[in-house]
Design goal:
DNAb Helicase, Chain A; 46% helix
Length: 505
């Protein structure tokens, strides 16, 4: 295979890599890393590597025959010397374990070529405008960062804090008070179909649209620029949800306040992908990044493997630090929670490395009657909160999420409502004046506009008997209840008390 060699090239290293890929196939790509065809210098080497990338993208086998066929389809087989040119590469093949070293050599030569090309452009830049010169300076800075350690890597300036001195650390800053901190990693989890993504989208839209409260309760304290990476949901689904949420508001997101990256082929374990994402955040001024979902954005990682999950957790921590903000990671929870046990941070799916990396944890689940969304929040200090939100059905022009109170609030409200219903059953029973079957009481309540099931009426009737406000006679279908007025109950209670006092004296 004839090669037009450039000013900086190592043909032996390039042939060794390409030949090994032709022999070992797709499995060898794991040792090559995320390199592009541009790192190869002769054009014929770039053509061969592009053909391999095309085959890999389609999930097809990579070998001498398939690469030749791919090149022939693209009209590029003759440009690489035909079958004989490919066979020459196989003769120069390296063993797979040496691939990283050869790739490193190729990369060094590619960087040298970039420096040479940039130097030539600078040498001929007499008539360049300010914008073009600024672009070349940025390019030079990028090349310097690629080959030289940063100042933070060569110098340390850590501070010691004396316990006897007064410290002035600021309290935790929140983007949304008690729900979403402004810095660090926030784990956002729950079982499937529990409105995880919908609630997060609602929060992002509320911040971008200038709303003051989340669900009518949680105060928005900061308005960061947001980037929402949606790997699973397509554009039409996101648009439908966005329009449904905005239908309840008289404001819309400000331009540039909320950006979406929809269904990217992204991998958090790919350094090039992560570097690109961080660069986009810096360019846009993003300090709140949403990754939806964890497993979809780490396709090659073992979801139960401690090593993989620890590496991924370290990546998102580094991203949060790099953008000086917060990263919200949408994740699934485990499926084997004990029946009746409320959701908590213990339900995070997989090993504990994810929990340890989180600054904040938010877990979501529906209540048993599926009428409310249960929200569990745990801070880094271990403080926990639990509250409930009601969810407005799709298509109704009302606030999508409405705060329904804490566990105690819900219990008190249910208790108060239960007492009201029991009093209503008691009044219907007393008004009848004669013993009533549960069905009779149910009918009387329905006529008064009180909607209770027959089973609920029966439960309240038994409760009235237990509290002395009714008597019962008969069994089975012949069971009848007779109401005792509250005045009678009070009078009998007083008499019993007086009798007890006389007996004791």
């Amino acid at each position: 295979m004839a090669a037009d060699v450039g000013p900086s090239c190592n043909l032996d290293a390039e042939r060794a890599v390409l030949g090994c890929l032709l022999i070992e196939g797709a499995e060898a790509f794991a040792k090559v890393g995320d390199i592009s065809a541009a790192v190869f210098d002769p054009e014929n080497h770039r053509v061969v590597f592009r053909a391999m990338l095309q085959l890999r993208e389609r999930g097809e086998a990579i070998d001498l025959i398939t690469v030749a066929a791919e090149l022939e389809r693209a009209g590029g087989l003759s440009a690489v010397g035909g079958q004989a040119g490919l066979a020459l590469l196989v003769e120069h093949a390296s063993i797979a374990s040496h691939l990283p070293a050869y790739v490193s050599i190729i990369g060094e030569h590619a960087q040298k070529r970039e420096w040479m090309a940039l130097g030539l452009r600078l040498q001929n830049a007499n008539g360049a405008g300010p914008a073009e010169l600024a672009a070349m300076v940025r390019e030079a800075e990028t090349l310097v960062r690629a080959v030289a350690p940063s100042e933070t890597e060569t110098k340390t300036a850590w501070s010691l804090h004396d316990a006897g001195a007064a410290w002035t650390f600021a309290p935790v800053e929140f983007t949304i008070r008690d729900l979403l901190p402004a810095f660090g990693v926030i784990w956002w989890g729950g079982p499937p179909k529990r409105f995880k993504s919908l609630l997060l989208l609602y929060i992002c839209l509320a911040i971008a649209a200038g709303r003051e409260l989340i669900a009518g309760h949680f105060t928005i304290c900061k308005r960061p620029v947001i980037l929402y990476v949606a790997r699973e949901d397509g554009g039409s689904r996101l648009q439908g949800r966005r329009d449904d949420i905005l239908a309840a508001w008289d404001t819309s997101p400000a331009a540039g306040a909320l950006h979406f990256l929809i269904r990217p082929r992204f991998d958090l374990l790919n350094p090039a992908h992560v570097a690109w994402l961080v660069e986009q955040c810096r360019t846009l001024g993003v300090t709140l990044l949403v990754l939806d979902t964890w497993t979809a954005l780490s396709p090659g990682a073992d979801p139960m493997g401690a090593k993989d999950q620890a590496a991924l957790a370290a990546v998102v921590v580094e991203i949060a630090e790099a953008i000086n903000g917060a990263v919200v990671v949408v994740d699934h929870s485990r499926k084997n929670r004990a029946e009746g046990e409320p959701i908590s941070s213990a339900d995070i799916y997989g090993p504990l490395q994810k929990w340890a990396a989180a600054e904040h944890i938010v877990m979501l689940d529906l209540t048993a009657d599926r009428r409310r969304l249960e929200v569990f929040v745990e801070g880094k200090d271990g403080d926990t909160r639990r509250c409930f939100l009601t969810v407005t059905p799709k298509g109704e022009p009302e606030e999508k999420f409405i705060y329904a109170g804490t566990v105690e609030d819900i219990a008190d409200a249910q208790r108060e409502k239960g007492n009201e219903n029991r009093d209503a059953v008691h009044r219907a029973l007393c008004d009848a004046g004669v013993a009533q079957a549960p069905g009779d009481v149910h009918g009387a309540l329905k006529a008064r506009g009180v909607a209770l099931s027959t089973d609920t009426v029966s439960k309240h009737l038994r409760g009235l008997v237990d509290s002395g406000r009714a008597t019962v006679e008969g069994k089975g279908r012949g069971t009848r209840y007779l109401g005792i007025t509250d005045a009678t109950v009070v009078r009998d209670s007083v008499r019993n008390s007086e009798f007890f006092d006389r007996t004791r004296s």
